Amino acid sequence: MKSYLFLGILCFCFFNCKQENPKKPPVTPNIIPIPLEQEVKEGSFILTKDTFVTGEAQFNNVIRYLRSYLDDQLQLHSNTPTAKNKITFVLDENITNEEGYALEINKNSITIGAKTSRGAFYAVQSFLQLLPVKNNGEEIPIQCIRIKDKPRFQYRGMHLDVARHYFSVAFIKKYIDIIASLKYNTFHWHLTEDQGWRIEIKKYPKLQEIAAFRDETLIGHYNDQPQQFDGKKYGGYYTQEEIKDIVAYASERFVTIIPEIEMPGHSQAAIAAYPELGCTGKQVKVATNWGIFDEVYCPTETTFKFLEDVIDEVVDLFPGKYIHIGGDEAPKTKWKSSEFCQQFIKEKNLKDEAGLQSYFITRMEKYINSKGKQIIGWDEILEGGLAPNATVMSWRGTEGAVKAAKKKHNVILTPTSHCYFDYYQSENENEPLAIGGFLPLEKVYNFNPIPKELTKKEAKYVLGAQGNVWTEYMKTPEKVEYMAFPRAIALSEVLWSSENQKKYINFVSRLLNFQQRFNQKDINYANHLNEIVGKFVNKDGKITYSLTTKNNEAIMYTVDGSTPTYTTAITYKKPVIINTSITLKAKVFSKTGEVISPLSSTKINLHKAIGKKITLSPAPNASYNAGGKDALINGISGSNKRYGDKEWLGFSGKDVNIIIDLDSLTPINSIQMRFHNGNGQWIYAPKKIKIDFVAYSSEKTNLDVIPIKNRDALLCNVHVKFKDTKATKVYINIPNYGVIPEGKQGAGHKAWTFIDEIIIN
Ligand code: ACM
């Protein structure tokens, strides 16, 4: 007996002393989102089968959660009340934030202090990240530490569109688990769309029979010509029992679910089931293509009765405070041509169709308020007048948030520029198909949800922000995970951590560790951390191209277009001098010669404007100006597929004037440029452009108006040839396309103009 005791003491000393090696100063752990205050201390707590998890009764749900985690994940079953080392949950009077917590890990005790179970749950999430990624399942050392933490924003949301593609209950639970572990507190469940209705409504069985299924689905990208379809029936819906199960599951993880029932637009699936809800009464099909559809609800009493009945069932299923009613992208075509709608506008003394949309939303708001709930709508609900109690989700930039906050309405930021995780996240041409755009991890990380136009007082209306996962191009859970993570990990830190705690480099080092936790959970996150980032540098007319990567391994490159190999490629030491056109290919190799990055390939076409001075008026939109103005004359063309990389510059709604100063009288044989024409993303090539010169010496002038042809293509090229022409300066005037026509995405708004390289030969 004695010898066992001695052995026990020896083991105890061994584990503790091992951690107290003075040569190894304790390192700050890798918690994401980074806590407000962390003080690492000497030594470790040893988690074993005997560790007892206990605490005040109000924390019982979190205690149960932690015990079951330790049981299921770590097989630490016993939980002995007489154990020496304990994890204790206590009510901490000093904590005032509902989601705040204090976590104190000493050698023999762990204390979790919080005001609410919610705070205690977030303490547990930090605690779980303190467990070593690998453990022996017997005795798990946990670094002694003191943490005090609370969130920066009260609304921390992730969205998922289950209408464009349906995802199983098991996957929805996995998604909720992941976001809860990142301290998100809201899951915005986008349940209804043109392409499918996914929530069981008992009073309207045709929503299940008809609206939940489409005949087929678009293959490839919306912009592909000709469009092709798979010919396979597709669909599904969540039964009310499944929804209750998911809501309860989320609630155990302190995630509130906001259901979205779209109105008046994005409602073609419901109209396919009940044609009387539309303005023509004609039978339509559940949409099989992506985009915006003219079929919207007609504001008849039949429609309002239908929507109120739907809301009745929805409010019974979702205990949260909010119902999202959509409100986005509702074309007014049908309302304009409907006698009923025009008469309705007159009778109700509404200004126009925008006034009718405002009437629609306000009426539904009143009904939803009468059920004790609040509405959220996309920023289109500002048009024609905002419903009195509505919260606005600003997605078309931040203007909607600014307008609504100035009107004293709560706002949630989800701008496409920083929160649309359906955009590409890497410039690599081999990325899986996405909707377009470009939103790399660092850009998400650097997002500040408080628009700078707001005063401190107005900024109080910013509840937080949300990452959106639209699934037109995500058929599988694996693809959703790939697109959502790690960007949602970065956003979690934007939303939780204080601004002065945030540093991207430090985030990346923690993310490298976090990836191992995701590996264990079988989460298919994207990993672009080793990717090579190239940068064009023009220093006094000397052109170089630099290559960097986030790790310290060797970059090796070739300039002849061949694929770099460890034995033959040049080791990158300093920026590559560009004095001829080249294709620069690079890869990162580990010290043992393994490739640890995707191939980076950049074609640099040396032409006469490279390294010259360029003036742009107006400046590109801040969200689409990654390469700066030199991107237009750096010899590198943008991606053929997407518009948001650092070579494409985006201008919102304005005519663009460009001056390229060539320094001296320069012969000009041709000017080439291209415009992105991704109409689905509100981007339109101009109808014409104008080119002019200083010191122009051609005999013929036909430069006034150059029409842009092939306007159906995704990329519109302009190639103008000149004869006997010399110039010191080139002027290019690009009139904006104008207002986007009715029935198209972004109808009624001025189009964006996107330009990449201007090639002067
Ligand atoms: C949206 O992306 N249509 C809100």
Give a verbal description of the structure.
- This protein is α/β, with parallel strands linked by helices and 761 residues long.
- The protein is 25% helix and 25% strand.
- The chain contains 18 helices and 37 strands.
- The strands form ten sheets. The chain has an eight-stranded parallel beta barrel, surrounded by five helices. Strands 1-6-4-5-3-2 form a six-stranded mixed β-sheet. Strands 28-30-35-32-33 form a five-stranded antiparallel β-sheet, with no helix packed on it.
- Helix 2 links the parallel strand 2 and strand 3.
- The longest helix has 18 residues, at 2-19.
- It is globular.
- The termini are far apart.
- The relative contact order is 0.08.
- Residues 1-22 have low confidence and may be disordered.
- Acetamide binds at residues 328-329, 378, 395.
Record keyword descriptors for this entry.
761 residues, alpha/beta, 8-stranded parallel beta barrel, 37 strands, 25% helix, 25% strand, disordered N terminus, binds acetamide
Q: Which structural class fits the helix and strand makeup?
A: alpha/beta
Summarize the main sheet. 8 strands, parallel, barrel
* Sheet with the most strands: spatial strand order: 7-8-15-16-17-18-19-20
Q: Which hetero ligands occur in this complex?
A: acetamide
SSE layout:
Layout: H1 2-19, E1 37-47, E2 52-55, H2 60-74, E3 86-91, E4 101-105, E5 109-114, H3 117-130, E6 140-149, E7 155-161, H4 169-181, E8 186-190, E9 192-193, E10 196-197, H5 206-211, E11 213-214, E12 218-219, E13 228-229, E14 234-235, H6 240-252, E15 256-263, H7 268-273, H8 301-317, E16 322-326, H9 333-337, H10 339-347, H11 353-370, E17 374-378, E18 391-394, H12 399-406, E19 411-413, H13 416-419, H14 441-445, H15 456-459, E20 462-467, H16 477-484, H17 487-496, H18 504-520, E21 533-539, E22 542-548, E23 554-558, E24 570-571, E25 576-577, E26 582-589, E27 600-604, E28 613-617, E29 649-652, E30 656-667, E31 670-676, E32 688-694, E33 706-707, E34 715-721, E35 726-734, E36 752-755, E37 759-760
Helix pairs in contact: 2-3, 4-6
Bound molecules: acetamide.
